[in-house]
Amino acid sequence: MRNYVRKSERSVCTPELLEQARQRIANGESKLAIAKSIGITEAALRKRLEKGYGVEKLGRFKPTFTTEQENELASHCKTLDECFYELSFMDFRRSVYKYADINNIPSGFNQESRTAGKEWALSFMRRHNLSLRTPQQTSLGRMMGFNRVQVGIFFNNLREITTKYRFTADRIYNMDETGMSTVPNNVPKVVSATGKKAVGKISSGERGELVTAVCAISAQGSYVPPALIFKRKRQKPELMDGAPCGSKMFISDTGYINSDLFYEWVEHFQVSTKATKENPGLLILDNHSSHQSLKTVLYCRENGIVLLSIPPHSSHKPMFLPGAQDQLC
Fold first, then answer.
1. Range with the poorest average pLDDT among 89-93, 142-146, 277-281
2. How many CB atoms lie within 10 A of CB 113?
3. Which residues does UniProt call coiled coil (predicted)?
4. Residue 304 contacts residue 280 (beta carbons within 8 Å)
5. CB burial class (10 A; 0-12, 13-18, 19+) of residue 4?
6. What is the pLDDT of residue 321?
7. Cα 68 → chain centroid
8. How far apart are CA 218 and CA 321, in angstroms?
9. With contact defined as beta carbons under 8 Å apart, do 282 and 308 qualify?
10. DSSP code of 3?
């Protein structure tokens, strides 16, 4: 049972302890003193001596799998986890049942559903440091692109430019874009009449419009006021009500960033960080096509902004600001 609490402190009289007890009895010690020293009752010791053999465990229940078999199952789960093909909880229970069935291992698993028990599976996961997690959807390109070689190249480049320009933590920035919806996906519960079939809540739209936020933060913790890209033809200043001081408003036909908008954001970045050739700043970013226009690269060269691209398909991993800060220490 998952929440079972043992109700006694009885020890097991193993064959090794039983042999030691026989030798001590032969040397003249009393059975009561021997039983107390090994943590069992005198009656239990007399019973083991009478039967002539010890036991490895208490109770009548036996584990379904051996330690080696459980380690094999746990290793299989961890290998699939490293390959981004994790088993769901139900798939794991089915796999355990099939493993026992193929290897002719007697078990008390459910024969109708052909799955291992829920309590057994949870206990197994606790024993082997496994847990149920909500995975992040990861494409094959991301999985293949993030590797030791690519990350090694990035940190080699980072080491070279930090050595050359002597960047301090407040001059190293990491930027990225993220999409937001004007209508939240998760609507909070509301108070309504019991038995009412349909409960609605007024919102700005049923699906919502995409808004892209362009954010940048330094290794020291300071940030550049964000830029918000709205899917519109004309600007509407009221949409920026409540935005952080200094935020910029951009518009595009799709709501996504493009080369022209990124150039405008770099100008905003330069004004906020006051980057110059005498006091340059490092901007770490991904290799999206909108970040690669010649106009932007030339502007960065003229204004002391050093661009460094992270490895392809690696933005799902932790950002590199802590790593950049470690390189400076």
1. 142-146
2. 12
3. none
4. yes
5. exposed
6. 47
7. 28
8. 7
9. yes
10. T
Q: Kind and range of the H or E element at 229? A: strand 223-231
Amino acid identity for residue 166 in this structure: R
| pTM over the 0.90 mark | no
- Which residues have a Cβ under 8 Å from the Cβ of 322 and sit 6 or more positions away? 219
> At residue 105, what is the residue type?
I
Residue 205's pLDDT is: 55
- Residue 93 CA neighbour count, 13 Å, CB half: 18
Give the residue with greater pLDDT, 182 vs 15. 15
Which phi and psi (to 5°) does residue 83 adopt?
A: -90, 5
Model confidence pLDDT, tens digit, residues 238-289: 989 889 999 999 999 888 999 999 999 999 999 999 999 999 999 999 888 8
DSSP reduced 3-state for 226:
strand
CA distances, 198 to each of 195, 201, 205, 209, 271 (Å): 9, 10, 18, 24, 51
Mean pLDDT confidence for 119-145: 78
Q: Tokens 């998760």 label which residue? A: 186
pLDDT at 19: 87
Give the helix, strand, coil percentages of the chain, each rounded to 5.
40, 15, 45
Cross-strand partners of 216 = 175, 224
As a whole number of angstroms, the distance between CA 306 and CA 328 comes to 16
Q: Distances from the Cα of 166 to the Cαs of 91, 95, 221, 237, 279, in angstroms?
A: 52, 55, 18, 40, 10
Burial 35-53 (b: 16+ CB within 10 A, else e): beebebeeebbeebbeeee
Taking Cα atoms as reference points, which of 147, 175, 172 lies closest to residue 159? Answer: 172
Residue 206 · residue 163 · CB < 8 Å: no
Classify burial at 315, counting beta carbons within 10 Å of its beta carbon; exposed 0-12, middle 13-18, buried 19 or more: middle
Lookup result for tokens 């139900």: 90
Q: Which residue has the tokens 């409540």?
A: 242
